[in-house]
Amino acid sequence: MPALATGAGHEPGLYELLAALPSQLQPHVNCSEDNTFLQDMFGERSLHSLVKIHERLQHYEESKPVPVLEGAAPLARVVSDELEGKSASQDVKELLKLLANPHVKSLLSVHDAVAQKKYDPELPPLPEDIDDDEDSVKIIRLVKNKEPLGATIRRDESTGAIIVARIMKGGAADRSGLIHVGDELKEVNGIPVDDKKPEEIIRILAQSQGAITFKVVPGAKEEASIKEPQMFVKALFDYDPKDDSTIPCKEAGLAFKKGCILQIMSQDDATWWQAKHEGDTNPRAGLIPSKQFQERRLAFQRPVTTVSSLRSSTRRSSGFRRSFRLSRRDRKTTKSMYEAKKSEIYDMADVPTYEEVVPYRRQRGDKHRLVVLVGPTGVGLSELKKKLLISDPQHFSVTIPHTSRPKKNQETDGVDYHFISKQLFDTDIHNNKFIEYGEYKGNYYGTSLDSIRSILSKKKVCLLDVQPHLIKHLRTAEFKPFVVFVKPPTVDRLRETRKKTQIISGKDDKDSTKPFTEEDFQEMVNMAQTMETQYSHLFEMVIVNDDLDVAFSELQLALKKVETETHWIPVSWTHS
Ligand SMILES: Nc1ncnc2c1ncn2[C@@H]1O[C@H](COP(=O)(O)OP(=O)(O)OP(=O)(O)O)[C@@H](O)[C@H]1O
User: Please, which residues bridge with residue 210 across strands?
Assistant: First the structure.
């Protein structure tokens, strides 16, 4: 048995353990033959060398060494060629002898393989029994590990042939570049597949490990692999392939949540796109329903009842938020300021599927994104706006509303309101100048788009609260709205947190206030639920206004990020 180093001073490793084993085992082995066998086995030089290498590798793993060069073998050849016959020096001769040594050569080539991370196995030679007549037949060998091949097959209805239906982008089959959609599969590992069902073939493939040989007839149109432009979309719905009975292969599906950013890898198939989660380093794509397909099936699923049922359930039939109220000194009429002639609060939002997005970062000097707050009545939008305004009055601002009512003595035009005539108001309504307007006691009140523009052009952040159905009108390159949904906590928490809160009663014009009622809380929660169901695809952030200070901090932080960090916005907002 060779002498074994014990690695004094080190933790006893595998090498030391191996060295100690024969003597440790000796008392337990009766037969001398067994003893010799064990001695021989544990004394085997190659085993010791392997273990030594293993220990060295483990030792170096933590220090993460990087190769000095990736081509040691070619360099050695160059050096040998240069030195050959040029010097009689003993050192040169020794070096040439060393470099010519097959072991050293192998060592250098292994070094290069490791440095270049060339670990793919060498493919075995092609079989010799290829039918010469079938000149259009391709023999393909792929080496399969645990990863699926990333291809689906189908039986052609008319010819009965087994056809490659789909190649998943970035999957093993795609990376090989050898199999294409439309190729006809003839054999797998020498087994003809003509008489087999697709499920049987899939089973054969699933059970295969290592090299798999495919015999295929290339499809008529072998598409040149064009590099797809990078396209990202924001998912506007939740998706789990496990719950989708229409997906051709559940395992190939990609699950995602509303708001996820997906990179679209292929739209070749009209029904099933291929996508990856943005930033996912795994190159393999998964199947997701295409926009058209999802729109079609969502259109069938959408309940039509929500519109009418909500209209009748909401007590605030006026339906207008009072986005101008913060600029008013007199808050007494705010509860019923607007009377809507026609409520379109709960109209049908567009069928939400995907929206193409691009990364965006506000440049110094650019206008700010419009900050839109939405939420049910009484949830605390005014309170949050007020806190933002107080926190930095130079940075945040709210719009000044227009009204057709006469100016009161203590009021200033352009400060409390923009006072305009009823006739002009009518014209402005006709010219779509208002994002929101309504009538109260024969006078108009409204928020004009120009009042938003005026704030943005001063490079201030404009805070606006509107009804959720209006968001879609603001979703333009000009406003780039950052929509925050402010949600109430549970009724229990509302009861707890709003114990001392007084709200303006709205029953009359006097300054009367009242506490929240149980009905108010319930309505707030119900309304929030409905808003979320119908419009959550338009919300970029949801804040639960449980503790006011916490909600405010969350909002403040989010707005800071929107101003300074890169985030995703619809691609349509980047070209005006
Ligand atoms: N987290 C909170 N905890 C306790 N009271 C709150 C909280 N948030 C808001 N409030 C109080 O609730 C009342 C209603 O808030 P606010 O006026 O901001 O609601 P709103 O969303 O603007 O609703 P509305 O459109 O009916 O005016 C205010 O008295 C406010 O101070």
Answer: 144
